[in-house]
Write a structure and sequence with these properties.
Distance between the termini: 77 Å
Largest sheet: 7 strands, mixed
Number of strands: 20
Helix content: 25-40%
Strand content: 15-25%
Shape: globular
Structural class: alpha+beta
Length: 671
Amino acid sequence: MSSRKLPLAEGQAARTAAARVLLRGGVNEKTGEALTARVVAERVGWAADLVAGMVAGLLAGRWNAGDVAVLAAGVDDAGRVLPSNAWMALRRLGWDVRVPEGFKVNDRIVRMAQEQAGRTLRSARHRAELTGGLLATWPADPAKRTPAEWAAVREAIPDGRSLPASVIKARTRQIAAFCDERGRLPVDVFDLEDAPRVARMLVLAAVDRQQATLERAEDNPARALLRLQLPTRPDPRSYADWTWVACPITLPPTVPPGAVLHLPTLRPTTGPGGGRVHADLAFSHAVPKAARTGHTIALSVDWGLNTLLSAGACRLYPDGTITALGAGAMFRAGGVMARQHRLRRHGEHLHAKTDTYTHLIGGTPDHALAAKHAVLTAERRHVADRRSGLNDALAWSAARWAVDQAIAAGATVIYVEDLRSMEAKGMGRTMNTRLSQTVRGQILERMRHLAAETGIAVVTVPARNTSKHCPQCLVPLRHCKAPDRPTTPGWKWAYCPDPHCGWQGDRDHGAWRRIAARGLTHQNNTIVVDRGTGQMAIPRVIDKLETGAVVTPTASPQVSRGERSKTGPTPRRTPRPAPRRRRAPSTPGPQRPAGQRPEGHAHTDHKPPRAACRYQGVHTISSNTPTTRRHRSRHRPRGAALGAGFHLHAHATPPRWADPQPETTTGPRIA
């Protein structure tokens, strides 16, 4: 890789993504010794532990409101703007890390520690502002805020108008639990929370070529070589204890051949079969630039519970008319969601048991329940990991399905219902929990990631009245259980009470039509783009534009009623058609022996009883059919005459060459 700059043509944009790869071994460049994956994981783990210790020491000294505010301000004491790299910003402020006594590390290891600590301190700014706004407007009843208190807390939090209510409620419960335990409100988020746990990783993006390099193979674009310095012992005492290790990497198919590779982040893990090292490899490549406006074909997505996504495409014509392209589709994930909720209930049960054991142990290390507590804690983490993996797989699958629907429809934009402010309440404890834990945020994030590859814009649309009003006339819909049960109360099926409209259909199908119409009519007036993330959104609904956000029904295809006058003689039909069970035997082919069974369906007028024994001879009849001892006294096979059936009381026809029989067919002769 000669340059990290990505050349872009007109109409293209740079897209940075990441792919997880596995380090399967390496070579010690000094001695030429081949290192197994386990040895590489061990040496990477030593370096990660060294960096994590330095990060923990820096966070312990800087985890306070004053230092986080100074770093978040973006300027140093002299008024100069701080660099975007976290490690450079910390050095400008004079925040150094402490290397363990007796250890010898180069400056690049210190850079990785400062980069990781700086990113953590910068991310604490949002939590500090959120906690400060909640404490400044603490309600009289934390469990139930009044509308005035909701307005006050949103005004006190920066950008609180677009903040989901679930985030405010979760932080409120955390503060209330602290108050119940300590008998007072916390001073700030740094009094409410301890310094976060430090992850074991190596952020190689903060170093230069003196610590790590990454080059793509010239003869094979799917291969790359990562070179980095690793310690040969857990406590390196001199520079001689650091050696260069070359690790070949196989790039996944998601990395384009012309992509620019960046240094990865290494994450060592431990397991029963030995350690492994996962590398989060970042790469940049050119993609079509997503248009902000001017869309004519759009795919809209509506959220559900068991039917997780309902999507369909709509077209905008020059005269402003909007029509639906097809009946839409659904992404059903009832089985996956059920499994996820079973794991959730199991995790809650384990959490309750561990809390009980913690209370019983009371801080005694040699308590009799200490071993059981450790086992339950490990099991709870295992269940949490399974839930995370299941949610991640579900999010990727749903996002991939939605983007594929947009590509198939030729859409240039995906309008998604914005449910960040949705509050799950009033539907029972179980349903509220299921609604609040749906992976909508992960699906939307991955949908943006996949749509950017093909230049498709993803825009969030307000969810006001998308399922309440008719998509064709905006009249409030009526809901029932099913189309054939219009008087049974329900919510799944919707129909328009206006006799001039008459639209009816699934509630979610009506919602995606409303979302598409709203997005296409508001795209030129209210769409905004976030400068930091590049995310597009329609934040509000304009009533004047909403009156034209309707889907015009397409005309039903007319049945052709052509001339049906007689133009020729009526074809002759046999007066004796073949019955349902053909009596005419099939004509034997040139390669087949004569006397095989007739073709066609078996006789279905009655079901002959099951034969007690299927080992029958050629001339066996029903009276000679043996039966079991249990039914010998009362079982009388019937309907088993020669040729009357095939499956149960089937009797083989005698071969024609042994006893020729005259022609007995009664139907028309088949040539």
